Amino acid sequence: MRINSATAVACFALAASHLPSDAHANPRVADYPAKPVRMVIPLAPGGGSDIVGRVVALALSDRWGKPVVVDNRPGAGSVVGTAIVARAPADGYTLLVSSSSLAISPALYRHLDYDVQRDLAGVTLIASQASLLVVHASVRAKSLKELIALAQARPDRLSYASAGVGSATHLGTELLLHAAHVQLQHVPYKSAGQATTAVLSGEAQVLLTNMASVLPHLDAGRLRALGVSSLKRSPLAPDVPTLNESGLGGFEYATWYGMMVPARTPKALVATLHDATAQVLKSGSVRERLAAQGLQTYALPPAQFERYLHGEIERWNGVIKTARITID
């Protein structure tokens, strides 16, 4: 994902602007929120979407003086919870905070009962998070180059763990393997936590996952980091080279998190939601909490977020077709 600093500044400038003039004439917007707001997170508690959603929910609750209630609805790689929001009343009281899975599902599942671009409207891109490529301490590779050599010599001896078929950890790793022109055995688990545990135990040897979940194990010497998936080194692990500088020129991968609402939500209400979310993301405490998890914050305007989402859907469609991954 390439969103430079100039774009980010422009986004925050837009977020700070006044609402459309007709917004204050609409009592539904002027009085919003008049009751508690439900924030559906279509993935399990403890994951990236849950962390981001809860930080934003708490900040919005403080700003509005009304509760923003987090409702975890995991299932089918975020499909279950996303469908709930797609069918919800378009009144601003049901929000969706999800991840890159929004862009993955349309190509992965053959029979969705919703269309992301038709049935949902973008509010904003909230944040993105780079991943770390790590290996079990027993793997005799101290760099990406050495891991590729091992994989080429004995592809049957190395396996990578993921949070399940079609998960971000699965597809992100496939993207990496395609760029490196190597293959590893895929061992899917039910969650990112289980995948991490599997690599810690040596049951699998390789993992590409969010930084926050593996950093403590690097310090303990149980895992070894070979590269970070962002184009620039992370301040959380400044000694770890990027995959880009390790030989995969131009390689970049991040899990992103965004907010959406039902498609028929009035534009003035979407603008209100974007303005409020952008303002809390500017808060030093919110940005610090997210930065501690390796997250970089944004506040893309709705139209720009929807264009970004469209591009991501096309990107992952290509990855899924190349890897021949399908789920009925």
Topology:
Elements lengths: L4 H11 L11 H4 L6 E5 L6 H17 L3 E5 L6 H8 L7 E6 L1 H8 L7 H4 E17 L7 H10 L5 E4 L5 H13 L4 E4 L3 H10 L4 E5 H9 L3 E6 L25 E9 L4 H15 L2 H8 L3 E3 L4 H22 L5
Parallel strand pairs: 1-2, 1-3, 5-6
Antiparallel strand pairs: 3-9, 4-7, 4-8, 4-9, 4-10
Helix pairs in contact: 3-11, 5-13
What are the salient characteristics of this protein?
328 residues; alpha/beta; 13 helices; 2 domains; 10 strands; D-Maltodextrin-Binding Protein, domain 2
Taken from the alpha-carbon principal axes, the silhouette is globular
**CATH domain class name of the largest domain:** Alpha Beta
Q: Spell out the helices and strands N to C.
A: HHEHEHEHHEHEHEHEHEEHHEH
List the uncertain runs. Answer: 1-25
CATH-defined topology of the largest domain: D-Maltodextrin-Binding Protein, domain 2
* Number of domain units: 2
**What fraction of residues sit in β-strands?**
15-25%
Mean pLDDT rating? 88
Number of helices: 13
N-to-C CA distance: 29 Å
Percentage of helical residues?
A: 40-55%
Fourth-level CATH superfamily of the largest domain: Bordetella uptake gene, domain 1
Q: Which CATH architecture of the largest domain?
A: 3-Layer(aba) Sandwich
How many strands, what sense, and barrel or not for the largest sheet? 8 strands, mixed
Structural class of the helices, strands and pairings? alpha/beta
Strand segment count: 10
Radius of gyration: 20 Å
